[in-house]
Amino acid sequence: MTTIAHISDLHFGCEAPMVREGLLASLEHINPELVVISGDLTQQAKRREFQAAHAFLATLPYPYLIVPGNHDLVENNLPERLLFPWQKWRQYISRELEPVIHEEAYVAIGVNTARRVSLNPDWSRGSISRMQVARIRRQLQTTPTTHLRLLTAHHPFWLPPMFAHRELVKRGASALQAFQSEVDIILSGHVHLAYAQVTQGVIVSHAGTTLSNRLLLHHTNSFNVIRGDRQRLSVELMEWGSQRFRFARQQVFRREDAGWHQQH
Ligand SMILES: [Fe+2]
Ligand SMILES: [Fe+2]
Asked: Domain Calcineurin-like phosphoesterase spans what residues (predicted)?
C-alpha cells in the first residue's frame, strides 16, 4: 500500500508558523513515501518568499514532488513575468517544472498549468496544452499496469457547484477524457477547498491551503493523505484544530473496468 501526503497552496509570505510546525509533526506520524505539493508555494513570488519556501522544503525528510501555481509567477513586474517567469522557481525550488517520480508501486507525474500570459483577462486561470497531455500519456504507456498513476496539477479539473464561478483549467475536459483509465487520481489545489470526486472515471482530489491564512470562510488549514493501490484508494482529510492536525473524514474509491467510483 502506498501512502502519499498531499499538501497545497502553502503561500509562503502568508504562512502560519504554528501550523507549519503542526504539519511537520503530523507528517512524522504519517510517515509518507512521498509528499505532493500542488502549487502556490508563495504569495507574490517574492525572493524572500521563495527563500522561506526553500528553507521549509529543506526540512522535509521525505521525497517530494512539486509543481508551480499561478502565485509563483510575479504579478507586478511584467518584464520579469514575460522574460524570466520561472527563474526564482528554478533557483530556489527545483530545476524541473514538471517532475516525474517512478517508484516500485506508483508513478507520480507533475504538470505545470500556470501561464505567464493568457487571452483570458484572468491570468490566474490555468491551462493544459495538447502537448502536455500527449507527454503524460506517453509516460504512462511505459508504466506497468499495476502501478498507481498520480497526476499533479495546480488548477482544477472539476469544481463543486458552490465554486461554479471559478474556472476550470483550460482544455481540462478533453484532457480528462484522454486520461480515462490511464490516470487514477489527479491532485490539485488553487481553490483552497478540500474535496474529492470521480469525474469521467478519474478521481479528482483537491487539498485546501495547508499553511496559509488565505482561508475560505468557515474553513481551516488542511491537507490530504492518499492511501492504497490501483484497486482501492482512500483520501483522508486532515484539518487544523488550533493545536494540531486531526483526522476529519475519509472517502474510499474502488476501480472497476469503467474506471474509479466512490464507495458509499
Ligand atoms: Fe492558492
Ligand atoms: Fe492558485
From this structure: 3-192
Report the first-to-last Cα separation within the chain, whole angstroms: 21
> Whose CA is closest to 39, among 186, 149, 179, 172?
186
What number of CA atoms fall less than 13 Å from residue 40's CA on the CB side?
27
Could you read off the pLDDT of 15-61 as tens digits, one per residue? 999 999 999 999 999 999 999 999 999 999 999 999 999 999 999 99
For ligand 2, the distance from its centroid to the CA atom of residue 248, given in whole angstroms, is: 24
Domain ranges (residues) in the chain: 2-263
Name the superfamily (CATH) of residues 2-263.
Answer: Metallo-dependent phosphatases (3.60.21.10)
Centroid of ligand 1 to alpha carbon of 230 (angstroms): 29
Ligand 1: centre distance to CA 143 (Å): 31
